[in-house]
């Protein structure tokens, strides 16, 4: 920086400002107390720089767009026009900027502009930020703060904006909770067996399953209450297995367990009920995780399974992070400790991490486990990228990639020739097109059904309105007839009353 700073680019929430540097600072003297204090004094600082131009943003949308571009180190069209109008780009100049990532993009658009984000440039920009609206004459007190607050909220919202359906955060939370629940259920079930085992120790050998044991403990309570009539109820708990139900009743009759008080039994039953409810919730959570994986990462789920796929996403941090990983990294995800230990001791590096839990690794022979894990990691990497970057991913690629892994396993065992990658991609594309067509047909049929239902509803409504109208008209006609009849009756009664005295007079005469 032989010539020092010529201009400064100040990026603000309200717009872009270009300043000309009038007095150059010295690298050595810039840290002196007097120089630092001069930056805080407006009268002294205003003599060091001069405002060339201030280009405000037209609205919040434009401010957000430019903020996103600057954060990614890109020169927006608006910034480009501001620099073109206010910088003497014909001569070579030094431009001070706050973000060094923006430098290469400006240099690409303006070859004669050298971008500098040194300590001196940062001191100048810090001084401009400190004095704010006093230097930028077009702004008023409070404008900067309001603009910064609005832009900050908009920028944060844009960063965390996601598709509700394709959100992998829920998968990470669900798989973590699933693992935690498995540990907790095992611990609690062991405690139930130990507690209820004092009363009915034989039950643990008859029903080794934790969930079934807890349900039986909750149903039986006092073993003395069991009789032949309880057979059907116990069979319903043990999946309609009458033999096991009979064994439970027989064991209860000859049980060596001690009697238990009502208070103790109540506490034991409460805990058993909690174990049952947690186990049932675990089943629901697993179903939720499966559905979520089929929505977010259908190809990865189809290839390696929902649980292993969810663990890979969780360990990587997100589906996007997983898709950016190389196949060699995916292969040893979850085995980092073993890897660094091997590197430190110069031993053999691990062949697999989390993907060891895949059924493909289990199917392979001992000598081929490393080879198949490498091949599987490669396919997992492809599947995760398809899932992450596709707008509407289907299971087509996952199914074909799974077929390739199975054929590779067969090749290691029997030597059968596997499918080529080019053929596999062609098959996947044709399968994807078929799935998309079927989906369109389903949506069309559903739309037709909706339309037909709508038409039926409209017809029904019209018919009901017509019937209602007819009923109303009939009622009105009937009422009118009744009114006419009443009027006639009244007239007749009046005429009869008028005739009767005349008749009386005639009779007297």
From TrEMBL:
It is found in: Nucleus, Nucleolus. GO terms for cellular component: box C/D methylation guide snoRNP complex; small-subunit processome. Residues 456-478 have a biased composition (Basic residues). SMART domains: NOSIC. Residues 296-414 form the Nop domain. Residues 436-509 are annotated as: Disordered. One of its GO terms (molecular function) is snoRNA binding. Belongs to the NOP5/NOP56 family. Required for 60S ribosomal subunit synthesis. This is Nucleolar protein 56. It comes from Babjeviella inositovora NRRL Y-12698.
């Amino acid at each position: 920086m032989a010539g020092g700073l010529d201009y400064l680019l100040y990026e603000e929430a309200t717009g872009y400002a270009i300043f000309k540097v009038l007095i150059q600072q010295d690298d050595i003297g810039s840290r002196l107390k007097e120089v630092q204090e001069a930056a805080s004094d407006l009268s002294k600082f205003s003599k060091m720089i001069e405002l060339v131009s201030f280009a405000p943003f037209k609205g919040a949308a434009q401010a957000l767009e430019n903020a996103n571009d600057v954060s990614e180190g890109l020169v927006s069209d608006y910034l480009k026009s501001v620099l073109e109008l206010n910088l003497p780009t014909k001569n070579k100049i030094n431009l001070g900027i706050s973000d060094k990532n923006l430098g290469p993009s400006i240099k690409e658009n303006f070859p004669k502009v050298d971008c500098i984000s040194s300590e001196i440039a940062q001191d100048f920009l810090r001084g401009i930020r400190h004095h704010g609206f006093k230097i930028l004459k077009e702004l008023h007190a409070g404008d900067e703060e309001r603009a910064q607050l609005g832009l900050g909220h908009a920028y944060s919202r844009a960063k965390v904006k996601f598709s509700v359906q394709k959100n992998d955060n829920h998968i990470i939370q669900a798989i973590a909770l699933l693992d935690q629940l498995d540990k907790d259920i095992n611990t609690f079930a062991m405690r139930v067996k130990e507690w209820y085992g004092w009363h009915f120790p034989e039950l643990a050998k008859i029903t080794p399953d934790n969930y079934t044991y807890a349900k039986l403990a909750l149903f039986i309570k006092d073993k003395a209450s069991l009789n032949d009539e309880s057979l059907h109820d116990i069979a319903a708990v043990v999946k309609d297995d009458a033999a096991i139900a009979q064994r439970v009743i027989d064991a209860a009759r000859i049980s060596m367990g001690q009697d238990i008080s009502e208070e103790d039994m109540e506490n034991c039953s409460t805990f058993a009920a909690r174990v049952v409810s947690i186990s049932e919730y675990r089943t629901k959570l697993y179903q939720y995780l499966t559905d979520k994986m089929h929505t977010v990462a259908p190809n990865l789920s189809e290839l390696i399974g929902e649980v292993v796929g969810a663990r890979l996403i969780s360990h990587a941090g997100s589906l996007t992070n997983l898709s950016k990983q190389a196949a060699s990294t995916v292969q040893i995800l979850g085995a980092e400790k073993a890897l660094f230990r091997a590197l430190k001791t110069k031993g053999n590096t691990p062949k697999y991490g989390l993907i060891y839990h895949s059924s493909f690794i289990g199917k392979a022979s001992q000598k081929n486990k490393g080879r198949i894990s490498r091949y599987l990691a490669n396919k997992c990497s492809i599947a995760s990228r398809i899932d992450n970057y596709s707008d509407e991913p289907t299971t087509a690629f996952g199914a074909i990639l799974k077929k390739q892994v199975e054929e590779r396993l067969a090749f290691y065992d029997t030597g059968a020739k596997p499918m080529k990658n080019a053929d596999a991609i062609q098959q996947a594309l044709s399968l994807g097109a078929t799935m998309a067509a079927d989906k369109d047909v389903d949506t069309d049929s559903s739309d037709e059904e909706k339309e037909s239902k709508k038409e039926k509803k409209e017809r029904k409504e019209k018919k009901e309105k017509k019937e209602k109208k007819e009923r109303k008209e009939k009622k009105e006609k009937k009422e009118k007839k009744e009114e006419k009849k009443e009027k006639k009756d009244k007239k007749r009664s009046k005429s009869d009353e008028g005739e009767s005295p005349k008749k009386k007079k005639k009779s007297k005469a």
